[in-house]
Amino acid sequence: MILDQLSASAAYEGLHPLFPKAFAYLRSFDPKTADGKYELQGLDLVAIVQRYQTAPSADKLWEAHQIYGDIQVVYQGLEHCGHADQKTLTITKPYVPEKDVEKYAAPSAPSALLTLGRGNFAIFHPQDGHQPGVQIGGPAEILKVVIKFRLKA
Predict the structure, then answer these.
(1) CATH code (residue 42)
(2) 56 within 8 A of 69, measured Cβ to Cβ
(3) Residue 35 belongs to domain spanning
(4) What does the pLDDT average to over 139-146?
(5) pTM for the full predicted model
């Protein structure tokens, strides 16, 4: 897991061949973009624009992926995102290849509780169990872009 400021994203572009294109999109993202999936480089690099309301931790599922990693950027609002080693989590919904997701029960305590808000990003790989969309204090309206990058491009 990586957490940093979007303004520092150029430092991470060498970590994956798709990152330069992904971060260029994120740095130039127009908040007026409609919700939906946008192919940036076929199915290897996809942007998912979503608007939703945060919810209590008990209402949000933990997840991890096998084929794609995530770059998550919140452009409006503020949310918590739990993080834990995927190997320490208990499976509640087995892996679904078509959706590239496995769901987990909440751990007794996350190894980290990230705060995602305007100006920063988080990168999650398969070992990173994560719980996005958790409210801070109360519900908040969120505008988020999740970039799905194929791990072996």
Answers:
(1) 2.60.120.370
(2) no
(3) 2-150
(4) 98
(5) 0.95
